[in-house]
Amino acid sequence: MFLAIRELLFAKTRYILIGLIMVLTASLIFIISGLAQGLSADNASSIQELQADLLILTKDAEGELTKSFIPMGEAQEIVDNQGDEHASTLAIRMMNATRNNSQQQLDIAMFATEPDSMLMPKITEGVSPTNQKQVVADTTLKQEGVKLGDKLTIGEASYTVSAFTSGQRYSHTPVVFIHNQGLDQVNAIAVQGDAHVEGSFDVMTKEDALQGIPSYSQEQASLNMMIIFLYVIAAFVLAVFFYVITLQKREQFGVLKALGANNSYLIQGLMGQVVLLAVVCIALGAAITVGIGALFPSDMPFHLELVTMLKPAIIMMIVSFIGALLSLYQVTRIDPIEAIEGAAA
Amino acid sequence: MTLILDHVTKTYTDGPNRFNALDEVSLEVKSGEFIAIVGPSGSGKSTMLSIAGALLSPTSGNVLLAGENITGLSSKEITKRRLEKIGFVFQAAHLVPYLKVKDQLNIIQVLAKKRVKHGSDLLTHFGLQHRLNNYPNELSGGQRQRVAIARALMNDPQIILADEPTASLDSKRGQDVVKLLAGEIKDRNKAGIMVTHDERVLSYADRIVTIRDGKIVKD
């Protein structure tokens, strides 16, 4: 590292410039990751957080929750077979609601289940519903002005918001948990542990069910594609930079080898530079992303935690190593004879 | 004997043509002896210097460095021999552009994994004590070549090889540099080989070896 550090300090400008590109790329990767996770949560956190392992759908729904219709009687039978501590019916309806008889229409996703169901979410504010007319709403509904005790009119019926929960969104709308009484069909039966059904039913995991949410996989795929492209770009930018720098330093490497520097010393120096550059740039990119994230409006679907930043950071490090490989190869190929003018035949 | 080239041949193949850059060359250089190698371009003198400096391995023949035959050694071992036994003074100094003068010498000890750095003593000896913290581009050509000589002495080598040390200098500075080099080789009892075109500096050499078409024609 004796040489590596001194060179970084001497040729500050060029390393700062390449560093800037790396910082921007890292920031963009973090921001898009945050957006992908935010959108994923906005679209499906209610399914991701569902207190169940498996979902039973009708076969002809082909994995799409909202296309699966199970008559209540049949659903109840399955629940009884599974044991009702480990199974609940689930009906999902995209609905409009009005608050306290105002004209404003609110988009909500209605999740109807048994009142004592395992699917009822953890309450963050208020008290659990005690009768069929009380509901639990996702906390994001507060942004539309809904408060505890407000009256929500959904379809024909009126309910009172008795509690709020958090992290329960479905198809970019807040979820309202409601008593399932009076429903004649449900979409699925949620099961903890193993599920045993036959005939016209399918058992799928929650992860599979996510793919059946409208636009979920398309949204994630397009964002993931951007992220993958950014990784590739980062690798190429680093590869080209170090390739050109190594070409430029060919003579120097020749001289150093003639003086007795072996390949492993020179490679350590180069890798040291790559690691230093990558670590500093990824850290700066992360810091910038956290700063920008704090400026985003609260209803923007942006979700980034330290743990979830770790994965892109590690991939960026790996990608930087891959980018440096070409230059490593070059360094090993340089012949010390190049230090002697006219001797390299 | 510090350096012996024993019937050294270096053959290059260019398609169907084979060409001997060096043809059965034998040479002995003793400690404290400074020899100059002269000859026209393409005569093989750079090839000879490269083989003597363990930068190139001969096609046939043996190279003995301080009594050890280095021809069969692995490239890792040969790199180690260069670091420990050989000092180089290159054309145009070939200093590392991003190292301060003191670090130009310290790098040798870093590579040799030695703790003690006596680079500043050597630089003082060469009258460069005021230039320790300068980069090569802040030095004159003569100063650069003096740093290069100090660097060549840093590892206390058995032999010192100089490749056209006066090429980038004017006549006066060129003479000064070769005079300095010759003096150090004598004082420190090293074996010295210099490849040069510059006839004005030949008077500092103990022996002049003329090479033509890969053969020594005059010694």
UniProtKB/TrEMBL annotation, chain B:
One of its GO terms (cellular component) is plasma membrane. Residues 3-219 form the ABC transporter domain. Pfam families: ABC_tran. It is a peripheral membrane protein. Keywords: ATP-binding, Cell membrane, Membrane, Nucleotide-binding, Transport. InterPro entries: AAA+_ATPase, ABC_transporter-like_ATP-bd, ABC_transporter-like_CS, ABC_transpr_LolD-like, MacB-like_ATP-bd, P-loop_NTPase. Belongs to the ABC transporter superfamily. HrtA family. Part of the ABC transporter complex hrt involved in hemin import. Responsible for energy coupling to the transport system. The complex is composed of two ATP-binding proteins (HrtA), two transmembrane proteins (HrtB) and a solute-binding protein. This is Putative hemin import ATP-binding protein HrtA. It comes from Virgibacillus salarius. The lineage of its organism: Bacteria, Bacillati, Bacillota, Bacilli, Bacillales.
